[in-house]
Design a protein that fits this description.
The protein is of the alpha+beta class. It contains seven helices and twelve strands. The chain folds into two domains: 187 residues, Helix Hairpins (Orthogonal Bundle); 204 residues, Glucose Permease (Domain IIA). Helix 1 runs antiparallel to helix 2 and helix 3 packs across helix 4.
Amino acid sequence: MAGSSSARASELDDLQNKIASQKVELQKLDQQIRDLSGKITTTKQQSTSLKNQIAQLELTRKKLAGDITVTQKKISIANLAIKKLTVEIGQTLDEMDRRRMALANSMRRLNNEDSVGLLELALSSGSLSGFIDQTESFYQLGGELDKSINGLKTQKISLDGQQKKKVQEKNTLTSLQSQLSDQKQIADQNKQQKNTLLTQTKSQEATYTKMLNDSLVKKQEVETEISNIESKIDIIINPKSLPKTGTGILSWPLAKIIITQYFGNTAFSTKNPQVYNGKGHNGIDLGTPVGTPIKTAGDGTVLGTGNTDLACAGASYGKWVLIRHTNGLSTLYAHLSLIKVESGQSVSTGDIIAYSGNTGYSTGPHLHFTVYASEAVSISSLKSKVRGCGTYILPVSSYSGYLNPLSYLPSN
């Protein structure tokens, strides 16, 4: 038993050192990803050109590769943690066996003492002092028995805690492995996007500029179609159906918040009325690199998901998710790279529902986040008359149904 305990203690020290070393490497990788994210933001702010677009895609590739390495490192740490917990559970079981043996010995001794009554003890002791010594021994055995029982209870509580923690680590490991698969898929999409862009433009700046102009025209025409439909939706919102405005009604869908465009008649929408058809920005834009986990802003049900690029590439939301919450609000998450939920699915606040991207009409990687009055929004199938476009599926709402997200989000 002693040799086994010594071996386990040595293995624990080794595992602990490995975990500490991996965590140091993880911190360095996290810093590299932060640096790359900053460069992506800088590139986005530069003038639009084929050169900058390729540079941004290449930075995104490096950042996604870093994300994958970080996740693999976290998986390694989780595996080491599970091994460490396995050794600790083995130690606890050994200690419980030792205490069980001690308890069994105490009970045998107590049974032997208990089979001799106090009168027999007094008669057999030969003296008063001998009787007192034997009586004290009797009660000492009882105390040892209580101590052994309490020790077993303590070890059982410790074992339950260790086993629960092991289950949690395994759940974390499963989640990380799923995330790793997602990140690899997004990295493949990014590679394909770069290859497609180079094929379409043949590395010619003039061709790329023409593509951008065509995309903007298509965006304007699609927005006009949607606007014409929404202008005909006449819904008067019942104020009682909405939660009172205030911070914290909804949660932020991203861990790090960088607002790149606000709701309503922003400077960009005012300078570019053709983009929003003169109606202002119907949500807020949150700057974030491709592949960032997107979390639901509240408990609710997925009303639908879609990808407008399938019907009209580069003209609208791209990949999107619409969620109806339990408080009279609905939220839209758009320009995604990968969707992780499906229509009808129940979600809880903070669940990962997608990853950020650059799909649809987007001037750079970001999340478009819209808040609706639930009674005003629905998912519609619209057959476009725009050249080269088919039937696209996306959320539409009366103008009265668009709400300022900052009225319901925590102060940033």
